[in-house]
């Protein structure tokens, strides 16, 4: 038996090739986002340069074939639906997370967590289908037609509650045991421990989870298309049918052309910017939590 | 040099710095009286904080050299600088010279990988790969160019016999290595190292994570390897060092950095230490 | 003071339990509706016959094939790219280095990008710019971009969690990085690879918005990867929104979709364990 037949330089070459291959792949994957923004800019450039960014915000209406490009009604509908969903989902999600860890007997807590995980994986189109056949008729009984901002808010709530439950659960799990034990040692009740020690300590993670959920709500498309009525108008009442920014893209992209198509890309760009701003705030918060 | 005493005023003997040749200069019969590794003024720092200061000693071919001393005195750092594993630790800087058969291992010309092939290393916690017993031994061999099935089988058999593991695992060579007991895992790691036919084996507290019975078996194995390999073993088990080592170096922590206090024949370190600190440590009065 | 605070505690406890109960109730309502309305038409013929009458009748056969092909394309593009990127990030970039930070940031942003934006991008890039048209290939590659971040993150964390002793041991044995990776680290990270794949497949199967403008609506049996093909989720959307009287089949399709999601997860896990099981020891 002889060792070292193969010179170490040939093995070094193999390592060099490996590094080159994986580095190329890594650059490729990290470049996808740049590529996406690049293409959004390229496709929306005709609209941005001839129509100008201001008119997308201040035009009175969205009639792209007649030269009116106001995205404001849809932007406000998107924001209203997302804010409404976050307001409803935050207490539900945080309470679910607390319930699983501090109140439920272990098997029930486990089942609850498991159903949260499953619910967060249900495709948005399925939630939309259910919303259209279960929630919309229910609302329609009181305030026809039913497909409305409220339906959108409720459906988004169903979609982001598990997200908030899972992220705030993870934030609670990451707290050192000593926090809870210390509070109990001081004679605080379980409720006081939660309210005054554990939740404040996990605040960064919980808020980061809420922001991520808000980003998900803003970016959600299919379920919203299916339940919210799709009429372009500013949301003045909960029962108004409205059209979100994402829904507008999904509905009109199929037949849009020219500056109409370009302005849909503008709304895509706007959406991306909003979502990234939310995500950035979330990272900053969770980063702060790490530093103490 | 064979014997070394730290240059401090605490020497138990004459009170002066001493590089002395002991009377046993020829060494025990298993050893050749030539140093295989000469360490000269080795200083090692992590992120600018010295962990080892100015260590000089010789390691003799075919002998067992034990490094003793309390935890944190730089024994592990010393070992990992001998095969330049310290290169892998971010922020670790090494000064001084380490001559391996006369060549400085920190020279630009030195091929680190060739060095590591000549110097095997055994870690404190057994670290077999999550593969079968056979593949744990074969993979490094294949890596180093052994391709023929017969050669591979022979090498697996030879190294397992050498570590006394063959009879225990001959029927389950394809079983996962991690299913072995801790002592068996450690012997497998030794087999994996000697399958590459190294000259030197570095052992970093190889028995300290094992139960007493396994520990004895591994210790006997190390004793049986004496003469075939140059062995440098870090241990805080004094009785073990005394049983298996030909030479011993005593490390101590001074100003938060490890220093070599005394280096000599094992027998003299334990029976007639010349430095007060050594005497206190081997006598069980400190550490 | 004591009674007040115990009253407040009781209210607090009551609120939490009510909220959790509400969430569970909604979940079971959704589940029960799906099961009740979907199970009726679900049988073997439903899975093996093509849709008729715009999907009101008939089954899902070509749609299932298209869905499978789209996910297959997505994973065959994303898996190698994801594994390689994860290797680069965990093994070859110094932790906290600038390059690694920028790459991670870009992947995090990608993970947060709304799916409709992926749809816009896929339509403009794969369909028009690369000239692939409305095709399974375009849809699959769009989904690959979407699934990539989660795939990379899970594999990367799997690689990073392998013990330092293996790396030191490999260095002491003078193994090359390639050998260490291929024989030790990657097999040990196989469970995380399986998790990443199942999460990626889950994300791909569930996706609708990114597929409408990339793989299209055509509900015929696809004859090649360059054909347009209707994914299951797109089918559900179309039945619900554009076909009156399609609800029954939509519910059945939704049930199939959810079964598919669960099956894909289990299958990925089983498959990956089988490939690497012989090498990976379970201590």
Would you identify the CATH architecture of chain A? Orthogonal Bundle
Compressed to H and E, one letter per element, the order of chain A equals HHEEHHHHHHHHHH
- What would the average pLDDT of chain B be, to the nearest integer? 85
The tally of helices of chain A reads 12
| Inertia-based shape of chain B | globular
Q: Which overall shape of chain A is indicated by the principal axes computed on the Cα atoms?
A: globular
The largest beta-sheet of chain A arranges its strands as 1-2
Q: Give the biggest beta sheet of chain A.
A: 2 strands, antiparallel
**CATH architecture designation of the domain at 3-7 and 33-131 and 199-282 in chain B:** 3-Layer(aba) Sandwich
| Low-pLDDT ranges of chain B | 9-27
Give a description of the structure:
The complex is a heterotrimer of chains A (292), B (287) and C (283). By secondary structure, chain A is an all-alpha fold. Helix content of chain A is 78%, strand content 1%. Chain A has a single domain (70-291), classed as MetI-like fold, CATH 1.10.3720.10. Chain A has a two-stranded antiparallel ribbon. In chain A, helix 3 (72-103) packs across helix 6 (149-173) and helix 3 packs across helix 9 (203-219). Chain A is globular. Residues 9-27 of chain B have low confidence and may be disordered. In chain B, strand 6 and strand 7 form a beta hairpin. Chain B has a domain at 3-7 and 33-131 and 199-282: Rossmann fold (3-Layer(aba) Sandwich), CATH 3.40.50. In chain B, helix 3 (133-143) packs across helix 4 (149-162). In chain B, strands 2-1-12-11-5-10-9-8 form an eight-stranded mixed beta sheet, sandwiched between helices. Chain B has a four-stranded antiparallel beta sheet with strand order 4-3-6-7, with helices on one face. By secondary structure, chain B is α/β, with parallel strands linked by helices. Chain B starts with a strand and ends in a 5-residue tail after the last helix. Chain C has two domains: 2-41; 47-277, MetI-like fold, CATH 1.10.3720.10. Chain C has a two-stranded antiparallel ribbon. In chain C, helix 3 (61-92) runs parallel beside helix 6 (136-160), helix 3 packs across helix 9 and helix 9 packs antiparallel against helix 12. The radius of gyration of chain C is 23 Å and the shape is globular. The chains are: A mainly alpha (292), B alpha/beta (287), C mainly alpha (283). Chains in contact: A-B, A-C, B-C. The interface between A and C is large, with 88 and 82 residues.
């Amino acid at each position: 038996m002889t060792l070292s037949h193969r010179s170490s330089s040939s093995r070094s070459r193999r390592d060099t090739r490996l590094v080159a291959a994986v580095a190329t792949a890594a650059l490729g994957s990290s470049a996808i986002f740049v590529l996406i923004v690049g293409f959004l800019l390229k496709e929306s450039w005709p609209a941005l340069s001839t129509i100008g960014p201001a008119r997308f915000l201040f035009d009175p209406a969205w009639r792209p074939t007649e030269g009116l490009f106001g995205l404001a009604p849809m932007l406000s509908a998107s924001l209203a639906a997302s804010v409404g969903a976050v307001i409803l989902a935050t207490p539900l999600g945080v309470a679910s997370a607390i319930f699983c860890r501090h109140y439920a007997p272990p098997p029930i807590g486990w089942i609850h967590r498991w159903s949260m995980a499953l619910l967060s994986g249900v495709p948005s189109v399925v939630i939309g289908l259910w919303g259209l056949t279960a929630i919309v008729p229910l609302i329609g009984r009181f305030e026809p037609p039913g497909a409305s901002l409220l339906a959108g808010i409720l459906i988004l709530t169903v979609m982001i509650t598990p997200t908030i439950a899972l992220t705030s659960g993870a934030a609670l799990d990451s707290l050192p045991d000593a926090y809870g034990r210390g509070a109990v040692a001081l004679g605080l009740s379980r409720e006081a421990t939660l309210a005054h020690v554990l939740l404040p300590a996990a605040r960064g993670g919980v808020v980061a989870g809420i922001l991520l959920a808000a980003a998900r709500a803003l970016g959600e498309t299919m379920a919203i298309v299916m339940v919210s009525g799709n009429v372009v108008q500013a949301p003045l009442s909960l029962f108004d049918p409205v059209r979100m920014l994402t829904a507008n893209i999904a509905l009109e992209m199929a037949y849009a052309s020219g500056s109409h198509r370009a302005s849909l890309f503008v709304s895509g760009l706007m959406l991306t910017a909003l979502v990234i701003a939310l995500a950035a705030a979330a990272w900053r918060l969770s980063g702060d939590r790490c530093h103490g | 040099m064979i014997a070394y005493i730290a240059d401090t005023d605490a020497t138990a003997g004459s009170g002066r710095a001493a590089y002395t040749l002991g009377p046993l200069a020829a060494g025990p019969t298993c050893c050749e009286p030539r140093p295989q590794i000469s360490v000269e003024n080795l200083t090692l720092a992590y992120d600018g904080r010295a962990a080892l200061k100015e260590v000089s000693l010789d390691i003799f071919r075919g002998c067992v050299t034990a490094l003793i001393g309390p935890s944190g005195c730089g024994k592990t750092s010393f070992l990992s600088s001998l095969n330049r594993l310290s290169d892998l630790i971010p922020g670790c800087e090494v000064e001084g010279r380490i001559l391996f058969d006369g060549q400085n291992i920190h020279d630009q010309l030195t091929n680190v990988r060739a060095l590591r092939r000549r110097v095997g290393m055994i870690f404190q916690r057994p670290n077999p790969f999550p593969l079968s017993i056979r593949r744990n031994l074969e993979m490094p061999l294949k890596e180093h160019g052994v391709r023929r099935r017969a050669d591979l089988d022979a090498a697996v058999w030879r190294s397992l016999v050498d570590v006394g593991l063959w009879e225990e695992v001959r029927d389950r060579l394809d079983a996962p290595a991690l299913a072995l007991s801790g002592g068996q895992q450690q012997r497998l790691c030794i087999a994996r190292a000697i399958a590459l036919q190294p000259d030197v084996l570095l052992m970093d507290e190889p028995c300290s994570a094992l139960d007493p019975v396994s520990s004895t078996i591994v210790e006997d194995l190390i004793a049986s390897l004496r003469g075939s390999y140059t062995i440098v073993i870090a241990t805080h088990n004094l009785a073990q060092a005394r049983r298996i080592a030909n030479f011993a170096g005593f490390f101590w922590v001074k100003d938060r950095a490890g220093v070599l206090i005394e280096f000599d024949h094992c027998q003299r370190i334990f029976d007639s230490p010349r430095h007060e600190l050594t005497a206190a440590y081997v006598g069980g009065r400190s550490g | 003071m004591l009674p007040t605070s115990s009253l407040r505690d009781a209210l607090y406890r009551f609120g939490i339990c009510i909220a959790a109960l509400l969430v569970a109730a909604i979940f079971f309502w959704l589940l029960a509706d799906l099961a009740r309305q979907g199970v009726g038409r679900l049988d073997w013929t439903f899975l093996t016959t093509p849709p008729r009458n715009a999907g009101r009748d008939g089954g899902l056969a070509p749609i299932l094939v298209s869905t499978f092909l789209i996910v297959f394309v997505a994973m065959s593009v994303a898996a190698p790219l994801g594994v390689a990127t994860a290797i680069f990030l965990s093994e070859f970039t110094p932790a906290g280095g600038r390059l690694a930070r920028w790459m991670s940031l870009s992947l995090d942003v990608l993970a947060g990008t709304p799916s409709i934006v992926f749809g816009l991008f896929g339509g403009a890039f794969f369909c028009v710019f690369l000239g692939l048209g409305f095709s399974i290939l375009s849809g699959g590659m769009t989904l690959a971009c979407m699934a990539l971040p989660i795939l990379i993150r899970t594999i990367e964390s799997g690689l990073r969690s392998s013990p330092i002793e293996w790396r030191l041991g490999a260095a002491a044995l003078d193994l090359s990085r390639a050998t260490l990776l291929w024989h030790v680290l990657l097999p040990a990270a196989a469970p995380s690879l399986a998790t990443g794949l199942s999460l990626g497949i889950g994300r791909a199967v569930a996706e609708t918005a990114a597929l409408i403008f990339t793989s299209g609506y055509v509900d015929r049996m696809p004859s090649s990867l360059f054909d347009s093909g209707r994914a299951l989720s797109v089918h559900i959307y179309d039945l619900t929104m554009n076909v009156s009287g399609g609800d029954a089949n939509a519910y059945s399709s939704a049930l199939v979709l959810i079964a598919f999601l669960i099956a894909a997860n289990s299958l990925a896990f089983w498959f990956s364990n089988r490939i690497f099981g012989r090498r990976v020891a379970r201590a």
